[in-house]
Amino acid sequence: MLATIINIVLPVFLVVATGAGYAHWFKPDIAWINRINMDVFIPALIFSVLSGSDYNLGEYLHLVFGALAVSLGSGLLLWPFLRILKVSGKTFLPPMMFNNTGNMGIPLLVLAFGEAALPAAVTLFITVNLLHFTLGLYILDRSTRIGSLLKVPIVLATFAGLVFSYTDWQLPSALALPVEMLGQISIPLMLFALGVRFLDVDLSDIRLGIIGALACPLSGVLAAYLVAPFLNLQGEQWGMLLVFAALPPAVLNFMLAEKYQQEPQKVASIVLAGNLASLIIIPAALWLALL
Questions:
Q1: How far is residue 42 from each of residues 10, 49, 198, measured CA to CA in Å?
Q2: What residue ranges define each of the domains in the chain, with the CATH number in brackets?
Q3: Strand, coil or helix: what is 126?
Q4: Cα torsion for 189, 71, 221, 282, to the nearest 10°?
């Protein structure tokens, strides 16, 4: 079991470390790379997986409900502690609710459960991202309009992929292959970019960062176990939900906090501490998931 977990976790963190090492020496500006990944490569991955002939959303509906319950449940479980922590809900709750399903979750789930887990991993990813770009943005800015979702490439790729899946449409192979190739770029690039992003933030609020690093996976796993009796998750899907629940906060939380000027330094501390703590927490979650 230990060897299996090492073989799953080590490749992920080696790619992240490569990104951090490259950033340390060359100080690259990867804002445009992240933009391309969000606008081209990740949408291509989502469309390629969802439009595949073997993808059936009905097989993953319980996983979707589980992901929604974990994300929303984490916020509800931690909401009463805001006054004790003396921190704004707009600052603390989004990083607790919206975890690193893209940069870390998809690679981890594929390594842990095999290539066959990619559709389920992508389903978790798009579920959290749709929630993040709706409820998450509304938490940060009450004037956010749902119609703005139609401008997000990830959302458009999700809807297009589902349409192709349910209508049994298929792209000509001359188009399907390059879309698939573009999608394959996204996973290692997400991990590499995560490593680079580590050097862009600092632990200006160590106490809040440590609290968030522990609260995010603990509340997620607790929420997963609380809703487990109401879900019909069998075998690997329960294991995937458990790993998903233990993931650290998404880097996107920091980027959005910076955009909306919602105490970005505090959010950066939470995100960085959470991802560093995942070096210990993720192996423990994998051990539970693979039992």
A1: 23, 11, 20
A2: 2-289 (1.20.1530.20)
A3: helix
A4: 10
Closest residue by Cα to residue 135 from 216, 223, 215, 75: 75
pTM of the model: 0.85
Task: Count each helix (H run) and each strand (E run) in the chain, helices first.
Answer: 15, 0
The answer to whether 50 and 161 have CB atoms below 8 angstroms apart is: yes
pLDDT tens digits, 55-110: 788 889 999 999 999 999 999 999 999 999 999 999 999 999 999 898 789 989 99
Q: Which residues on adjacent β-strands are paired with residue 99?
A: 249
Helix (H, G, I), strand (E, B) or coil at 166: helix
Nearest to 240 by CA among 134, 154, 116: 116
3-state secondary structure (DSSP) of residue 176: helix
CA angle (275 as vertex; 269, 279 as ends), nearest 5 = 135
Question: Two tokens at 195?
Answer: 């490593």
Tell me whether residue 200 is exposed, middle or buried, using C-beta atoms within 10 angstroms of its C-beta: 0 to 12, 13 to 18, 19 or more: middle
In eight-state DSSP terms, residue 134 is I
Q: Are 9 and 287 in contact (CB under 8 A)?
A: no
Q: Please count the CA atoms within 13 angstroms of the CA of 157 that sit on its side-chain side.
A: 26
Here the tokens at position 150 are: 């139609």
